[in-house]
Each structure stands twice: as C-alpha cells, then as structure tokens.
Amino acid sequence: MYASLPDNYKTIILLGTNHTSMGASIAVSLDTWQTPLGAIENDTEVSKKIVNISKTASHDETAHVQEHSIEVQLPFLQVKMQDFKIVPIAVSSGLSAEAYKDFADAIKEAVKGKKVLVVASSDFTHYGEMYGFAPKCKNANKWVHETDKKVIDAILAHDIDEFVDLAGKTTVCGAGAIATLMYFTEGKKGTLVDYKTSFDVSGDESIIVGYGGVVF
Hints:
The chain is about 35% helix and about 20% strand. The chain is α/β, with parallel strands linked by helices. It folds into two domains: about 120 residues, 3-Layer(aba) Sandwich (Protocatechuate 4,5-dioxygenase, Chain B), CATH 3.40.830.10; about 80 residues. The longest helix is centred in the C-terminal third of the chain and has 17 residues. The radius of gyration is 17 Å and the shape is globular. The N and C termini lie close together (about 10 Å).
C-alpha cells in the first residue's frame, strides 16, 4: 500500500484500534513515538486542534500503552516517508455513527489547508478457535476471502452502514478507525491495492487473518 503513495507527506494521522479498552474511546496521543529506526515527532498543533474541535476525541496516553495497531505502521512510514510528524489516535469500535462523523469532521477542520495522509490500521477477519470465531465451512481460507470481499466492497462503495453491519458480524478489529476514514474520504474513489490472508503464507487453516490495503 505505502509503495503506491507519494513520499512527501509532512503530517500523517494514524487511526488505530483499541484492543484493550483502556483509556478514552477516541484517544489522541501528544507524545513523541520511538521505534528501532528512530524517534518520530508528534504534530502537536494538529493533535491539539482535533481534541479542541471534536466532541468525541480527548487527549489520552493510556489507550496507547499496550496497543500495537499504530506502532506496527511506523517502520513502513519511516522507510517510505521523509521528515514527517505523526498524530496517533486510538479509535474504539462500537461507537455511534454520529461519533465517528463528528470525529472525521474535526480532523477535516484541523488539517484544513495542510497536505496530510490519514491511515486507518486494522486487520480484517480473524478466523480460528483462538479468536472464538470459527464458522463451519469446507474451505476456511476461501470463506475468509469471500467474507472479507464483502467488507472491502462496502468500504470501496463508502457504504458505512453496510460496513459497520458486516464488521460486527465478523472480527474486523479496527472498525471504528475504518469508519472514521470512510467519513473523512467521502466523495473520493477507493482502490484495493492488494488482499491476502495469513494462510496464503503459512498454509495453516486453523488460524487465518485477512489483510488488505485500500487507498482513497
């Protein structure tokens, strides 16, 4: 996905999920983040604007302490981009459509006049007993592919109600982050860059996770 993007974004807003349910429902970090490739400065001007404008977002570091959905994106960005700042935000799933729209509108207002990249970090279906989600089927990998295709089609069509409904019936972990991105990119054409499952690499059908890259 990142290979298809230009490398000149100076502010990157990262919408991750909140697996732990710790902290605020929509938690904006103001910290500098560190990876083995170095430190990444926070665009605190944009971070604070989002919190000030949004009715649903708040400054909170607790939600990020044990969360990985944002940090796994950072090395890819550090290799691809040059001299950029980040706005890391943990977005819980299960909030109202109004909450996600308010949040997306706040981001739009906060970055008005700036060139920004907004990334939503999420896996698609998690299939297997360890996830508590293993519907009976003859071919699990085919079933995951077909299930995720419906989810991805809803994303590409900007059908937020359909996406949220389908995400709730499967195990899409970052539904809130994706819904926010869909509101943020309304009117823009979506393209599926690629889709694979863990089975395509591991050959293990007992545990399968779907991964896709969509660019608006």
